[in-house]
Design a protein that fits this description.
27% of the residues lie in helices and 27% in strands. By secondary structure, the protein is of the alpha/beta class. It folds into 3 domains: 2-109 and 231-299, FAD/NAD(P)-binding domain (3-Layer(bba) Sandwich); 112-227, FAD/NAD(P)-binding domain (3-Layer(bba) Sandwich), CATH 3.50.50; 325-434, FAD/NAD(P)-binding domain, CATH 3.50.50.60. Strands 3-2-1-7-20 form a 5-stranded parallel β-sheet. The chain is globular. The model has no long low-confidence stretch (mean pLDDT 96).
Length: 435
């Protein structure tokens, strides 16, 4: 069996490794257009902020782990230009490679508005290395975009540089609902007030390796401008091969087959079912890509494992606070006409006598089913486990009553006996009982 994987990121290398592990006699070949495979994109902001200086620490494995130990053929700096699905071939230039099964894991590319075309974008290892070199001789840094990447960069780079953030939204991390979003906004402004809200660049010019950024609020200079204005799934190969797409993503079934049964897709280029809404949408997250790759590896010659979908659980470091969300927010609930109830709790992270820090937890409940369908959190102390607890609860489809009665472990140093999760669940039950 000849298996070709296009893309050496999380989904591609996870798929290739699982296929080879389950079927040692299969010939598995990976084509990666850059000179790196299997690296940690989520670690790049820490690399840029100087937490470590050796970029190779971002590599999950050296390439020899795949080529020598796992017996996977890996071609780096090799771009696949065309897929001939009828004759089961892929082309790099004029060179053709035949396959029995194909995996498309081409990822996504930065969304680059014309006004920002001369700025830096952080999406690949090479881009991270280039930005790191530029930062070595920089003092003033301007960031465009206050989404997940822009917000975390603003937090981490503020430790070493004079950083300005330009956000087109009213607050930071726009997926958050307004109430908890405003809490985060106050926290961020307490650490760095150099933010323009409701603002976009109207002109960015570069002269002698310096940048001038003009917005409707004024003009300022910067040594480097890093843009985090979204990404675009790389679906052109799939579209040109005649594969179906949905919402700008490669359409897949529950087993991650595309519209061509012998071609699979995973990672940032593939549509993923939202567990709450059922919509096929974009979840560009490493843990989801890895699990999709693993699922493809199982299903490459037998459909035995369904990919259930995702919640888009996200957590980042914002000035020492663990900030994140899972499931849907209020706006999404309204969009799908879900009869939703919200609960926002301000509690403490530990028992009172151990001087815990503030915790803000918001849960969203479907009034009709009484299930928790979304959660958002700002927590300086154990926020990640609280968010992941709620993500597991939402995935399992448990009710807010089940969450209240869940037998969570209690230890004063890790949470009060009435943990904010339990308080939020209790208040949710009260609201449902009062309806």
């Amino acid at each position: 069996m000849e298996v070709i994987v296009i893309g050496g990121g999380a989904a591609g290398m996870s798929a290739a490794s699982k296929i080879k592990r389950e079927n040692p006699d299969y010939n598995v070949t990976v084509f990666e257009k850059s000179n790196f495979v299997s690296y940690a994109e989520c670690g790049m902001p820490y690399y840029l902020a100087g937490y470590f200086d050796d970029f190779t620490r971002l590599l999950h494995y050296p390439i020899t782990e795949f080529t020598d130990k796992r017996k996977i053929r890996v071609f780096i700096n090799t771009k696949i230009d065309r897929i001939d699905a009828v004759n089961k071939r892929v082309f790099s230039g004029t060179v053709a490679y035949s396959y029995d099964k194909l995996v498309i894991a081409t990822g996504a590319s930065p969304k680059i508005p014309d006004v920002l075309k001369d700025t830096y974008f952080l999406r690949s290892m090479n881009e991270a290395i280039n930005i790191k070199k530029k930062l070595e001789n920089s003092h003033d840094v301007t960031l465009i975009g206050a989404g997940v990447l822009g917000t975390e960069l603003f937090s981490l780079l503020s430790e070493r540089y004079n950083v300005r953030l330009i956000s087109k939204h009213e607050f930071i991390l726009p997926y958050l609902d307004e109430d908890i979003g405003n809490v985060l906004k106050e926290i961020v402004l307490a650490n760095n007030k150099n933010i323009e809200f409701n603002s976009v660049p109207v002109e960015v010019t570069k002269n002698n390796n310096k940048f001038t950024v003009k917005t409707e609020y004024g003009t300022h200079d910067a040594d480097i401008v890093i843009s985090s204005t979204g990404i675009i799934p790389d679906v052109s190969l799939a579209e040109e091969a005649g594969l179906k797409t949905v919402n700008g993503l490669i359409s897949t079934d529950d087993y991650l087959h595309t519209s061509d049964y012998d071609i699979f897709a995973g990672g940032d280029t593939a549509a993923v079912k939202n567990i709450i809404t059922g919509e096929r949408q974009h979840f560009p997250l490493a843990q989801i890509a890895n699990k999709m790759g693993r699922t493809i590896g199982v299903n490459i010659n037998r459909d035995t494992r369904k990919f259930p979908g995702a919640l888009g659980t996200t957590i980042i470091n914002v000035f020492g606070w663990q900030v994140g969300y899972t499931g849907i927010n209020e706006r999404t609930a309204a969009k799908y006409n879900i009869n939703a109830e919200k609960i926002l709790v301000h509690g403490k992270s530990r028992s009172a006598y151990l001087n815990g820090s503030d915790v803000y937890i918001k849960i969203i409940i479907n009034k009709n089913t009484e299930k928790i369908i979304g959660a958002q959190i700002i927590d300086k102390d154990n926020g990640a486990w609280r968010l992941n607890t709620l993500a597991a609860a939402i995935t399992s489809g448990i009710s807010v009553s089940d969450m209240f009665y869940a037998d969570l472990g209690y230890e004063p140093e890790y949470g009060p006996v009435w943990d904010p999760i339990i308080i939020a669940s209790s208040l949710g039950i009260d609201k449902l009982d009062a309806k």
